[in-house]
Amino acid sequence: MSPADASSAPRPYRVVQWATGTLGRAVIRGVLDRPGLELAGVWVHSPAKDGADAGLLSGRAATGVTATRDLDAILDLDADCVVYAPGRTGDPLTDLDTVCALLASGKNVIATNGLVYPQAHGPSLVEELERACKQGGSSVHGTGFNTGFMADVMPLVLSRLSRRITHVYSRECSDFSRHPSWRMVHHMVGFGRDEEKFLRALRPKRTAMRLLYTESLHLVAAGLGVDLDEIDVDVDYRLAGTDLEITAGRIPRGTVAAARWTFSGLAGGRPVISVEVIHKADAARIPDWGDPGHSVRVHGRPSITFTTDDEWVSDEVTAAAVHALNSIPVVCAAEPGIRTYLDLPPVTGRMDATAPGGL
């Protein structure tokens, strides 16, 4: 490249990765591999990672970018965007002050869990986010790691093929038999607990799950032009009929081994948008509620159904990371403020015609 060509080349987007769990490390690798992106900084939660090289944390060669636990150091960075990925159970609402500080510092924020449709949480949250965006001239966008795409984007895509829509339904069924984390399987999902302990934990869990999925229902409702009156949450569960040996450990007979969450967005006294979330410790031995995979159905004229098995994506973590990375250019180019899927132009992936493998 000649000096003239170099001077005219667009400046890469400088990206900060917030947190380095499984998803965060995938984001770092994606930034390092992708032309047009540059790693500007990394925030870590663990003291053991403080000062470590970001490349080494992600399984790559050293990059010269040092991870930090110091928020002020991140705020002072010259960066265009922060990919905010505090973990699968992390929620930007629990640390809204940090999100707003990042926005006020002039950095766009792409959240991989939450902020898909902040308007679902009321005007106070919206005002706080908009105030920070105005101060920094920045935008905030949620891609939705847990509920992203199938529960919000796909229903809106399929709705283009139908008129007089009366109901939208999405379902995700996950098999945890090969999940390696006992913390996730037992403490977060609740498998392996006796019935009494599971029910005792249900109230705070119901609140957390409602917060997690409410945004998706409201986003779809807004896209379809309907106002939801309320969201109803129901949960059912199944006990293991025998000991289940799964990768994360044993699920003893008589303890909780499956749960089904149903979220219903009501308008005019009836459900108009429903999301069903099913977790199974071992899907092969728990036939209730169907097989692992995803389904989306738009009831209308005509009705549209899209169904996949659990192999619809070869690597869910990488897909979630790329979902965020592909959003960076459009979010950075957007007008300041809250930007949902309803506000942004369509986001696509990038073709590499030189890559091996073909179709």
Automatic annotation (TrEMBL):
InterPro entries: DAP_DH_C, DapB_N, NAD(P)-bd_dom_sf. CDD domains: nat-AmDH_N_like. The keyword Transcription regulation does not apply. GO terms for biological process: lysine biosynthetic process via diaminopimelate. Coiled coil: none annotated. One of its GO terms (molecular function) is 4-hydroxy-tetrahydrodipicolinate reductase. Keywords: NADP, Oxidoreductase. Residues 149-351 form the 2,4-diaminopentanoate dehydrogenase C-terminal domain. Signal peptide: none annotated. Residues 19-83 form the Dihydrodipicolinate reductase N-terminal domain. It comes from the Bacteria. This is Dihydrodipicolinate reductase.
